[in-house]
Design a protein that fits this description.
Two copies of one chain form a homodimer. The first copy, chain A, is elongated. The relative contact order of chain A is 0.11. Helix content of chain A is 71%, strand content 0%. Chain A has one domain: Tetracycline Repressor, domain 2, CATH 1.10.357.10. With 188 residues, chain A is mostly helical. At the A-B interface, helix 6, helix 7 and helix 8 of A face helix 7, helix 8 and helix 9 of B. Chain A binds a DNA duplex (30 and 30 nucleotides) through loops.
DNA sequence: TATAATGGCTAATATGATTAGCTTTTAGAA
DNA sequence: TTCTAAAAGCTAATCATATTAGCCATTATA
């Protein structure tokens, strides 16, 4: 029986696809192994178990998002850059819903690796807010404001929890406008 | 062996306490049963299994929150009422973290009972925003803005995903101020 | 007081994570 | 090219937990 060229990265990629398809919380090693045409114990040659895999998926998500943000924000500044940042989140939540779920769902590990992954987003976001006339502390708060909104709104949307029939992208855009308008409050 | 006066409500209360203590996702029927001094199969006399219990816990959370909001908002209006609403969320997330976590777990349950539970919050929130001069559609969008922010910010905070050391309540208050300031943008 | 419902129990089953230990492939050195 | 060791897979076994089945004691009520 010949081998596939599997490694840790490949396992995470498969897991990410599986998460997008069936939902992050429904992932099992059994299912993942079936998808990969191997047996579940073989996964342990690449990863440290289900918990660890979920952590990896979270980190994968943060890195992916960081790239998408940089990509979209490139060449923009001010309010436009903020909107681009928000749209990057929107796209991730829409196109990679399982990976997006991993980013907020994983709460057991607060280690150095996870911290570095989120730090990337923090730095990029922070930089985008640098055009506004804010103190470093205000800027840090504002990063949290946006991150909280983006994570929460998009999670609620992804899970069909906005039960009325109003268009979600319109709500999203309006919300972003409200937030951007609110930034002026900090400049007093 | 005499019996305790256990029923469905009691099981949910115990489960809520356990969730607050060890985290929603760490709940097991085994642990819960131990806490209640019964064996895990006995739980099935009151609930339909772990998944169903988690749904009950989510509904419990929404009802609890609704009560807390009404309580805090009572007698307030305008921006003060909005702040009170936000603080009710904050308190729930802080003091009943396990229950709060249950509320973000609704994604697997989109049934009539769950819908009614969230509808309560929607109505209260909507009413609070009625003092602003907004169209019904704008109001509906704004409810989503706040709900998204509150759910997301507090989830990230509860999951320790805000890695820098800045005070979380300060970030929260500033965020709420930014949002409230942003509402003015809609009145043009 | 007799009886039915209730709430608890133990034993058994199912699923999935994880571990142990074996075998084959593969990479790299001699 | 051949040998060797690591790597990547496998099967079998173990463990933990959820869940089901069916039994028995308590409790409430007719």
């Amino acid at each position: 029986m010949p081998r596939q060229g599997l490694d840790k990265e490949a396992v995470i990629e498969y897991a990410a696809m599986l998460a997008d398809e069936i939902g992050f919380s429904n992932i099992t090693l059994k299912l993942l192994a079936e998808r990969m045409n191997i047996k579940s114990p073989s996964l342990y040659k690449h990863i440290d178990g289900l918990d660890s895999l979920k952590k990896e998926l979270m980190i994968y998500g943060y890195k992916l998002l960081e790239g998408m943000i940089i990509d979209k924000v490139m060449g923009k500044s001010g309010d436009d850059a903020v909107r681009a940042l928000c749209n990057a989140y929107y796209e991730l939540a829409t196109n990679r819903s399982g990976v997006f779920q991993a980013m907020e769902n994983y709460r057991r590990f607060v280690d150095e690796e996870s911290k570095q992954a989120t730090d990337g987003i923090f730095k990029v976001t922070s930089k985008i807010f640098s055009v506004y006339d804010l103190s470093p502390v205000q800027k840090a708060h504002l990063v949290r404001t946006f991150r909280g909104f983006l994570q929460g709104f998009l999670t609620l949307a992804a899970n069909h929890l906005f039960t009325d029939s109003i268009d979600i992208k319109e709500s999203f855009d309006l919300s972003v406008d409200v937030l951007i308008a609110g930034i002026a409050y900090l400049n007093k």
